[in-house]
Design brief:
16 helices; three-stranded mixed beta sheet; 496 residues; 3 domains; ten-stranded antiparallel beta sheet; alpha+beta; 17% strand; HIT family, subunit A; globular
């Protein structure tokens, strides 16, 4: 198809999605011509195509003429540049969001989420490729996803990134300076990113969505300043402040220590969204009382990880109690339970906090974390152990803590290979060999057929994730673990 048709179709797409106005048509067309390195334009009739098809057509033309290199990273940089030409200025986005927010916070986020997809910052067509299912466990239905929307870098792109000059701008992928940034081989393009400024606990922050959308309206809330992650009293205030502004959203923070924290600890940020996680649905297993805070409803949640749930109508009271629990946990050692506040000067105890609204009340889940390592468990004692690494080896961050397994993309192909081998009666070799012990155990429990094998593997993968969370819990869910948990609660009360 003629490149002029693709250009006309992209402009029409911008008009349809109200990214541009009719008076912008000539300006936007010329911007696209410049990006495509075309000197002339033969006005063409736009055709009804998906955004993916339009961009694919433009990319193929650009690659063919040497305007864009033929690798995934270069293509992503280039089509983001094209979409940036259609994306309104930040001031326009801020104004629209503010107008929508005056109607309701939910109206504002509904608009902004759709806008982030329309600009292709969230690539709808990639998100649709993700594999999602639920697995029933004693803790309720756990969410499982094999996320395919984050593109794999090919060898050429990796090599180019290594050779590329190292820059200190933006300082990381969460910095405010990413808005409108052209990107490079080792940093994604963000010309189509528009963030929403918000004030949390008197500080300047920004709201945006994750381009990979692990769950509905997966948002990221980040500090305007490039300051490191820290869990403290102020962090609890900020989380509760955010759900005051957006009561239909939950928000949580990764822990602030390696292993138990997230992948970006250098920049203070939270994750939230319009989604009810399995942990939120989990009931309080037994109620507890914190001395001096009898007005705060507290309990231990029926969950594979060790979770204290606090609920109260007054934010300040939740913040005070959460801070007391945190400070107690930071300095807490119980050798019998293999919990050490520090070893050789390295701190181990921290908390993963999650905030939400329950009607007029505020609710705060405090997940106790510990990142100690041993020779037997070099990646962490409270981390998925080696026998589970064939399914999940990565750190258990905020999203997994709440009951959504974000599994590596490799598993889609590997599980298909395991299914094929089981049905053919073949040994698991090569990249599938790591699943062999697991499959042998499954054969003792199930009779595999052509009709049920795929479904069984999905269910059992979800059960492995439940074990992953159990491994990450500092207190085991048995009588001994319950006594040790109560010992800590008593310690908090004694400290007061």
């Amino acid at each position: 198809m003629d490149v002029n048709v693709y250009i006309a179709s992209l402009v029409q797409y911008g008009l349809n999605k109200k990214l541009v106005q009719p008076c912008d048509t000539i300006y936007v067309t010329n911007g696209l011509l410049e990006a495509m390195k075309l000197d002339s334009y033969d006005p063409a009739k736009p055709e009804a195509m998906s955004l993916e098809d339009i961009l694919q057509g433009l990319l193929e033309d650009a690659v063919e003429r040497g305007v864009c290199d033929d690798d995934i990273t270069s293509r992503d940089l280039f089509d983001t540049k094209l979409m940036g030409i259609l994306t309104p200025m930040p001031r326009e986005v801020h104004q629209t969001f503010s107008e929508m927010y005056a109607t309701s916070p939910e109206t504002a986020t509904d608009w902004y989420y759709n806008f982030s997809q329309d600009t292709d910052y969230i690539r709808r067509y990639r998100i649709q490729k993700d594999v999602l299912w639920k697995t029933a466990t004693e803790y309720g239905n756990l969410d499982v996803t094999i996320n395919l929307s984050k593109p794999e870098k090919d060898p050429k792109a990796i090599a180019a990134a290594k050779l590329a000059p190292q820059f200190g701008y933006p300082k990381c992928m969460l910095c405010a300076e990413n808005e409108g940034y052209a990107g490079r081989m080792n940093h994604p393009a963000r010309q189509n990113l528009r963030t929403i400024p918000v004030t949390i606990a008197g500080e300047g922050w920004h709201l945006q969505y994750s381009p990979y959308v692990y769950y509905n309206e997966h948002c990221i809330v980040f500090n305007h300043e490039h300051v490191p992650m820290v869990i403290n009293k102020a962090a609890f205030s900020k989380l509760l402040d955010f759900v005051s502004l957006f009561p239909h959203y939950f928000v949580g923070s990764n822990a602030d220590l390696p292993i138990v924290g997230g992948s970006i600890l250098s920049h203070e940020h939270f994750q939230g969204g319009h989604y009810c996680f399995p942990m939120e649905r989990a009931a309080v297993e037994r109620e507890i009382v914190f001395a001096g805070f009898e007005d705060v409803k507290a309990g231990i949640v029926k969950w594979p990880m060790s979770v204290i749930r606090l609920r109260c109508g007054k934010k300040a009271r939740l913040v005070e109690l959460a801070d007391k629990i945190l400070l107690s946990w930071r300095g807490y050692t119980d050798e019998d339970a293999f919990i050490f506040a520090e070893t050789e000067g390295v701190p181990h105890n921290t908390i993963t906090p999650i905030a939400r609204r329950r009607g007029t009340d505020y609710e705060l889940d405090l997940v106790l974390r510990n990142n100690i390592t041993t020779e037997e468990h070099p990646l962490g004692v409270y981390h998925p152990h080696a026998e589970l690494h064939h399914i999940k080896k990565e750190n258990i961050g905020l999203i997994e803590v709440m009951g959504l397994a974000v599994l590596p993309a490799r598993l889609k192909q590997e599980l298909a290979g395991v299914e094929k081998a089981i049905l053919a009666g073949e040994e698991l070799t090569g990249e599938l060999a790591k699943h062999a012990d697991w499959v042998e155990e499954l054969k003792k429990q199930h009779t595999f057929t052509k009709e049920n094998t795929a479904a069984i593997l999905k269910v059992e993968t979800g059960k492995v994730f439940a074990k992953v969370l159990e491994h990450a819990g500092v207190y085991q869910r048995n009588e001994k673990g319950a006594r040790a948990f109560d010992k800590f609660v008593n310690y908090v009360n004694e400290e007061g």
